[in-house]
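Milestone M4 deliverable, item 7.
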Amino acid sequence: MVDRSMNEAAWVRLQRWLLQPVDASSVVFFRICFGIVLAGWAWNYLSTGRVTRLYLSPLFHFSYWGFEWVKPLPGNWMYAPFVMIGVFGLAIAAGFFYRLSAFLFAVAMTYIFLLERTNYQNHYYLICLVSWCLPFLPLNRLVSMDVWRANVHEQPTVSRWVLCLLQFHIGITYTYGGIAKLTPDWLLGQPMGIYLATKSSWPIVGSWFESENAGILFSYGGLLFDLSIVPLLIWKKTRLLAFLGCVGFHLSNALLFQIHIFPWFMIAATTLFFDPNWVRRVLASGNSEATLKIADLESSFRLSLREKALAGLLLFYVGFQVIWPLRSRLFAEETSWTERGHLFSWRMMLRTKEVGLGYAIRNPKTGEVSNANHIKYLDEEQAEKFGRDPINIVSLAKFLADQWEKENGVRPEVYAFVAASLNGRKPQLMIDPNLDLASLSRKEIFERTFVMPLKEPLRSPPWDIPVAQWKEHMEIPELSFMKKKPN
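Output delivered:
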């Protein structure tokens, strides 16, 4: 009985803490930055022709499981979702029809995200998660057009859980990014050493970037940063120093690796860990009298049934986001090789995978084998990236089979010769070349039964022989499908 009452008291204290009003200026600052940064992202896609290259030009798009029905809009209509993100991003920043704008922004952003698997980025996934939270968060009650046009009442506070939910998304990105780096390759300095070696032409530090010590230093520095930054941001005594470290970390990433909006988004989002009233204090030049006076909750507060249901959904969502990224730990194989559990797990910059591949199509009735020109269906960026993920290789194989069947009236067999070098290893076969990929079941694809086990050890120095010469250094198995008799 005592334990139960103590647990109930702890639960009530947690509720009170999460529902306690805090200054809204911090989350409003995030709202403004979020809208502006994403509007800029949409403009970049539109102005550089990336929309055309990635979504209009290709004849085939790599889909996520369960979302194969998501297709590009016809013709110039494909520009509309990016225009929506730009317009509604600015509307979010301005707090103009905020909830509707945030909802439509989330729809457009998620649609674009689901269209092309080869364009997956962890920060796109993060933005999708945050964007679906925004319509439910009251971030338009301060410094917004909605207040100016009297659509909502001005309110200088939000419940603490609003701030905590946003902090959670940023914190889990950092923390799980660090946990994912606890791999043998990363601890031995790869693939960071390979990334840095591409910057060897830089003045002064370029020659050092080629050294093994550079890869080790950056690898352990990134690991320690990711694992420690959230506790350091939470602790008030180290918060400012930790934030300055964040700025330096993300600026160096932007300079070295050109990862688009991610550094700028994370710098703005990390400010959520400062005291909720930091914006108000900065604008008041540190005047302590500018601090908002916030009343405590009444001790007799009670959650309504609706509020309890929403709290339950929120707890489920948070629990899922904590457990889901760890699923790769359930599989014995190397995640960076099979890619099972790689997506949606905050596995950032953990692998370089150079791939050489080709498809062969066999007519089962005649036994005739011909090479397939898969490149004609893809954009240059798709062609460069898709072979890193065995799922994409199978998806394209099934598409090639569909196209060949339409033209010839016979369902063909499709085989792939795929050699890959992971994190500078000597290249080896990644896909069983004698398996008909077009006939694989969903269960076989999920279990990656068609993927050859990774056998090559990490090398020092990394493998640097051109793909065109790989066959001279590999053991090539007999291609038994070439000798199969016609049906």
